[in-house]
Automatic annotation (TrEMBL):
Kinase keyword on record: no
Name this polypeptide is given: RNA recognition motif-containing protein
Organism: Flavobacterium aquicola
Biased composition (Basic and acidic residues): 77-87, 106-117
Annotated CDD domains: RRM2_NsCP33_like
Length: 117
């Protein structure tokens, strides 16, 4: 089972998170999500546990638990349907935002073709 863990303290390490979940059973993997530019934790991560019963027990007991002074959120991670994923390069929708994109009325910059030849 893939488990989402949120509201993590920014200082927590993957080894610490693994240790918390290993108290309930085997852990396949632990991944704390970090900002790709700063390397700083984004405050959430994922834990993969092979046994669903152990994973559910971990979710039930760790959800709302205090870790380094913060109440963490723990629940089963559900994959997003393919259509809901954000696209960072194709989500403009046609540049119809008044004054931007193709609605500028041309790029003459003072004088059309004068001085170009």
């Amino acid at each position: 089972m893939n488990i989402f863990v949120g509201s993590l303290p920014f200082s927590i390490e993957e080894a610490d998170l693994r240790e918390s979940f290993e108290a309930y059973g085997a852990v396949d993997s632990v991944k704390i999500i970090t900002d790709k530019f700063t390397g700083r934790s984004k405050g959430f991560g994922f834990v993969e546990m092979p046994n669903d019963a152990e994973a559910q027990k971990a979710i039930d007991e760790l959800n709302g638990a205090t870790v380094q002074g913060r109440a963490i959120v723990v629940n089963k991670s559900e994959p997003k349907p393919e259509g809901e994923r954000r696209s960072f390069n194709n989500n403009r929708g046609g540049d119809s935002r008044g004054g931007y994109g193709n609605n500028r009325g041309g790029d003459n910059r003072g004088g059309g073709d004068r001085g170009r030849y």
